[in-house]
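Hi support team,

I'm opening this ticket because the web form for multi-chain structure prediction keeps timing out on my end. I have pasted the exact lines I submitted so you can reproduce it. The total is 225 residues across two entries, so I didn't expect it to be a heavy job. Is there a limit I'm missing, or should I split the entries? Thanks in advance, R.K.
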Amino acid sequence: DVKVTQSSRYLVKRTGEKVFLECVQDMDHENMFWYRQDPGLGLRLIYFSYDVKMKEKGDIPEGYSVSREKKERFSLILESASTNQTSMYLCASSLGAGRRGEQFFGPGTRLTVL
Amino acid sequence: QQQVKQSPQSLIVQKGGISIINCAYENTAFDYFPWYQQFPGKGPALLIAIRPDVSEKKEGRFTISFNKSAKQFSLHIMDSQPGDSATYFCAARRRDYKLSFGAGTTVTVRA
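Hello R.K., no limit was hit. The queue was backed up. Here is the completed structure from your submission:
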């Protein structure tokens, strides 16, 4: 079974804190994704990585950065958390370009910024 | 703005009934249309998917209907069961392999 794990299920942080969300996949997938999920907006892509140390901005990258030092691990960083970043964050992985590309999702991290 | 528009936002259906969720898109470059199912406390999981050269795909009680000329596609859940209660997302894959998701539909099946 493909497994995508996320470091925390729930996280509470204060405005201005630096926040790290970690994601690990065990299927040797090339692609990894970070989304945020908000009611009425669905899933919106924050950042995408197609290889180690490679990254691309998604649709809503402002206020976020990412790091991919190893193939199995993809981190989302909030440099200075703000209340409008309170959301559910989902990590996903998939096989590389040219494949059908089913995305496998982790269980999500619900982040609250006070 | 949302590249894939999904409706309704929520629906309630009796056990044994049919649930229908509709999606529409504008970008003709989309080349793959998956549906994801999400249970509370879980991440979304692929349910069924269709390519734009096919008008219908059926897997068990789940059917996708695809109308390329109208740029619309829909998910039909036949003989709905309480275990089908979940949030459903339509999506469309762009040429760069990223997915654009609809806003989601919460389906509640009453026993």
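A quick check on our side: The mean pLDDT of chain A is 93. Let us know if the file doesn't open in your viewer.
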